Amino acid sequence: xxxxxxxVALPDGGPPVYLDxxxxxDGVVLRDAAGQVPDAALLDEDGELCRFGxxxxxxxxxxxxxxxxxxxxxxTRDCSGRAITVQTRTDDRGGxxxxxxxxxxxxxxxxxxxxxxxxxxxxxxxxxxxxxPTGSSKVCLEPxxxxxxxxxxxxxxxxxxxxDLGFAYDVYCGESGxxxxxxxxxxxxxxxxxxxxxxxxxxxxxDLRATNPEVEALRENLRAFVAGGGSLxxxxxxxxxxxxxxxxxxxxxMQSPSPDAADPCCVCxxxxxxxxxxxxxxxxxxxxxxxxxxGRGVRGRGAVTxxxxxxxxxxxxxxxxxxxxxxxxxxxxxxEIDGVAPGxxxxxxxxxxxxxxxxxVAFEPEPGGGRVVYTSFHNDEQAxxxxxxxLSALVFEL
Length: 398
Description:
Elements: E1 8-9, E2 17-18, E3 52-60, E4 71-77, E5 83-89, E6 95-102, E7 104-112, E8 115-123, E9 128-129, E10 138-140, E11 148-151, H1 158-165, E12 170-172, H2 180-186, H3 189-192, E13 197-200, H4 213-227, E14 231-235, H5 240-243, E15 250-255, H6 264-267, E16 280-282, E17 285-287, E18 299-300, E19 305-311, H7 314-320, E20 324-329, E21 336-340, E22 345-351, E23 356-363, E24 372-375, H8 385-395
Parallel strand pairs: 3-9, 3-10, 11-12, 11-13, 13-14, 14-24
Antiparallel strand pairs: 1-2, 3-6, 4-5, 4-7, 7-8, 15-18, 15-21, 16-17, 19-20, 19-22, 22-23, 23-24
């Protein structure tokens, strides 16, 4: 290429470096006076040629399912040595790619809802690297990527969805005949706060409407847990985990236990010997809870029906892979949502003929805190694949 002016290399943010006195270093691209340059060579803070590389990987949940629409942030430096961050989101196969990252050390942070991972990598000049030290393009989150606690219930089994994804979780008995362990967890804010997400299955026996001081402590601890950044997933008959704590956010159509004092043996955390009933083997283990402590749960008004559901939330639709969602309520007495307050997001809605009713809603009680997600339908042994896929996607909305 003929030059009518001395060729230059262009340092990032600095004056041009004239190269007419000596032969140009390898890799430096020259330009003429007209500025016709395919690339401009940059010098780093030490005056050396600034080199660039690429980063690409495919992200997945522990069992290998694609991590769709996850946020990927790279912390690196520009050619002047200044700290910078660049971001992108994964595609519908969990893939992402960065070009023109400065060669050298970089830190990559992955975030999808409450699930996070961090990798320290080395960007190599003119090479495409991956997050895996073995060079594999596919990198999956660890099973314990975030602390998960689950309150077992009489009907729902969100643990089946977590198993499908491959995440580890701790189970606490919460069903109507064995809810002492669940109450003890919620009653200990320090222990509860070691988790990032608490799942409350449909049919929990934990009464949050009773006026006992122990129950008020449970409500306050749940408020503090979410305000401090923890997220809460609630399904169907566990609606009191929303209404008894944040009564003005979601209007439920349901019958609830009266707000009076419960039997002290049903709400105690450190129970005296006289509160121990005979051993009973239940699904979540051995229970010594007295029989009088069951039967104070909520009851919905929903009928057996089939609903054409629609995913309203754009991110949830991307995670699920579509918007249409046929839903069959095969048992009566599920909890309907009559309406939501301003600031509460409707994630999924359904056409009930005479009205459109929210089916999954979410809100953030405190700015900067965690999220509360409520779903009228849930997972069980007979859930169709579409529902399991939707609930798998919903986990990443927490």
